[in-house]
Amino acid sequence: MSKVRAHISVSADGSVAGPNQSLENPLGEGGESLHDWVVALKVWRELHGHEGGEVNASTPVVEESVANVGAEIMGRGKFGGGPGPWDDDPWQGWWGEEPPFHMPVFVLTHYEREPLTLADTTFTFVTDGIESALDQARAAAAGKDVAIGGGADVINQYLAARLVDELELHIVPLVLGGGARLFDGLGPDLELEQVRAVEAPGVTHLKYRVGH
Amino acid sequence: MSKVRAHISVSADGSVAGPNQSLENPLGEGGESLHDWVVALKVWRELHGHEGGEVNASTPVVEESVANVGAEIMGRGKFGGGPGPWDDDPWQGWWGEEPPFHMPVFVLTHYEREPLTLADTTFTFVTDGIESALDQARAAAAGKDVAIGGGADVINQYLAARLVDELELHIVPLVLGGGARLFDGLGPDLELEQVRAVEAPGVTHLKYRVGH
User: Fold this and answer.
1) A100 and chain B in contact, CB less than 8 A
2) Structure confidence at residue A96 (pLDDT)
3) pLDDT, tens digit, for every residue of A148-187?
4) According to the model, what pLDDT value does residue A3 have?
5) In this complex, which of B18, B176, B204 lies closest to A206 when CB atoms are compared?
6) Could you tell me if A68 and A145 are in contact, meaning their C-beta atoms sit under 8 angstroms apart?
7) How many CA atoms, within 13 angstroms, populate the side-chain half-sphere of residue A134?
8) Of the given ranges (A84-93, A185-194, B14-23), which has the lowest mean pLDDT?
9) Closest listed residue to residue A202, CA positions, set A29, A19, A33
10) Is residue B89 classed exposed, middle or buried when 0-12, 13-18 and 19+ CB atoms within 10 A define those classes?
11) CB-closest option in B182, B185, B194 to A202
């Protein structure tokens, strides 16, 4: 049975974006440095079609996060644009002409939109909720795992519905002081079991198994 | 120069106590399991005058947290009792007749109280603020380090004042959903540098150097 695996970069105080997120500042104030650890990596740069980059203890963690994943689910914010209905000339997302996903991506949105194919990534816009998105993603993944890529609100909804099997936090030495908080609305009845922790330059990767 | 070292058990969502803390439920709803990892340890049980207990990857972390520490600072909540003025027959704290500190302890409080000695721990009640408590603790520590033991509010005040050298989080697989939050009121201008991460049974220890 394929697994549902969520992974996200988080500040030491548990935020996945800073305050005052906007189109100009999508990760909020201070939030851009949440991903410094990954954008430096060779494996990340390769996914984005670039040369160069580092190999370090984060490398196998990132490789594992994409290995055996057949589809990804993300929120509108991670895709790009919004909120509100899609325009006549709808935004193609943050990800450019050759998005780094290389697999079917399902975007949760309240507003209808036709599927969009850019290079080897097809974005399907799902308006009928998280369970529909997961059903579609599982089918597309054809036996491989499904990744839940964020933002915090999307992951929190899947956690609340007890649809997540594994959750990996990339904990960064940064305090964001608010903004989008992981685990918002959740409490002690969410069962977490620590699976492993990996220390790496500028980040610690902490993986949990999530109870159902 | 002696260091100021803060250490605290924290939930995966960044709380050091659950909601609705009370005298009956000092760590709030769900908060008591924050310390399961440490109360199982032989080194902790020895500090409390008990026999038995486990030795695991957390053991050297706890040993290090008390090694070369000459004094501790804590808030009224960690000492016990309150809020409000001390009664005529003032509370002797949570810690019993033989507190586990075995060193001078400075308790931050708004209300005057004479020092209290229980076994080999003397509690001094400091009413004139965090810098006074730190000065007194440094003097008492006589060249050794000063530990800041919590709660969150005390650690947050010392972090905000840039008086902390090292901060170690014991991150527990638990979501508390509110209650006392570490880093509350702080933001990206707080400089954190990851020093090390240690994976242990039921907890990950994450140590930061804190900038001034």
Assistant:
1) no
2) 80
3) 988 899 999 999 999 999 999 999 999 998 788 999 999 9
4) 97
5) B204
6) yes
7) 19
8) A84-93
9) A33
10) exposed
11) B194
Residue A36 touches chain B, beta carbons under 8 Å: no
pLDDT higher than threshold 70 for residue A27:
yes
- Report the distance separating Cα A109 and Cα A64, nearest Å: 28
Question: Residue A180 has what DSSP assignment?
Answer: S
Amino acid at A17: A
| Better pLDDT: A138 or B87 | A138
Predicted confidence at residue A81, as pLDDT, reads: 66
Distance, in Å, from the CA atom of B148 to the CA atom of B34, rounded to the nearest integer, reads 18
Counting Cα atoms < 13 Å in the Cβ hemisphere of A132 gives 10
Token readout for B23 is 């005298």
In the stretch 118-147 of chain B, residues with CB closer than 8 A to chain A read: none
- Paired residues of A147 in beta bridges: A5, A72
* Residue A177 sits at the chain B interface (C-beta within 8 Å): yes
Backbone φ/ψ region at A180: left (φ over 0), alpha (ψ -120 to 50), beta: beta
More confident residue, B29 or A24: B29
Identify residue A180 by its one-letter amino acid code. A
Query: Who contacts A22 (Cβ-Cβ below 8 Å, separation ≥6)?
Result: none
Average pLDDT, chain B: 92
- Grade residue A203 by pLDDT with cuts at 50, 70 and 90: very high
Cβ contacts below 8 Å, chain A against chain B, sum to: 96
Q: How many helices (H) and strands (E) does chain A have?
A: 6, 9
Q: Strand B105-108 to strand B4-11: parallel, antiparallel, or no bridges (unpaired)?
A: unpaired
Residue B92's pLDDT is what? 75
Q: Which of B184, B181, B182, B211 is nearest to B195 (CA)?
A: B211
H helix or E strand, kind and range, residue B158:
helix B152-160
A91, A49, A47: which is closest to A69 by C-alpha?
A47
ipTM: 0.92
Whether the CB-CB separation of B107 and B125 falls below 8 Å is answered with yes
Question: Taking 70 as the threshold, does the pLDDT of residue B108 lie above it?
Answer: yes
d(CA A118, CA A91): 12
In degrees, rounded to 5, the angle at the alpha carbon of residue A101 between the alpha carbons of residues A96 and A102 is: 105
CA distance B12 to B177: 10
Taking only the tens place, the pLDDT of each residue in B76-87 is 878 876 677 877
